[in-house]
Amino acid sequence: MDFFQSFGRTLVVLGLLLAAAGAFLMFGGKIGIGRLPGDVFYRKNNFVFYFPVVSSIVISIILTILLNVLRFRK
Predict the structure, then answer these.
(1) What is the pLDDT of residue 33?
(2) What is the residue-wise DSSP string for 43-63?
(3) Which residue pairs from 59-62 have beta carbons closer than 8 angstroms and sit at least 24 positions apart in sequence?
(4) Nearest to residue 43, comparing CAs of 51, 53, 33?
(5) Does the global pTM surpass 0.70?
(6) How buried is 47 (Cβ within 10 angstroms: 0-12 exposed, 13-18 middle, 19+ buried)?
(7) 31-70, pLDDT tens digit by residue?
């Protein structure tokens, strides 16, 4: 396989991953990601602090499982 063919395949995979990440961001709020119990939300006067601890853990677990499945499928 020459360089251009492998580079083109890499760009297609990165584009699909980017599209999947965009779709997840668009529809993630509708399924509850970002508003899970355990996410830190603090509001006082005109100061707001938000840190999605549990949402980050859930996303990390899902991505770990997905990437391991894709890696061992070959």
Answers:
(1) 74
(2) EETTEEEEE-HHHHHHHHHHH
(3) 59/33
(4) 51
(5) no
(6) exposed
(7) 777 788 888 989 999 999 998 899 889 889 988 988 888 7
Burial 32-45 (b: 16+ CB within 10 A, else e): ebeeeeeeeeeeee
Q: Does 27 lie in the same domain as 41?
A: no
Q: Which two tokens stand for residue 54?
A: 């549990």
Identity of the residue numbered 68: N
Tell me which residue range forms the domain holding 13: 1-31
**Residues 39 and 21 reside in one and the same domain:** no
Residues 38 and 60 in one domain: yes
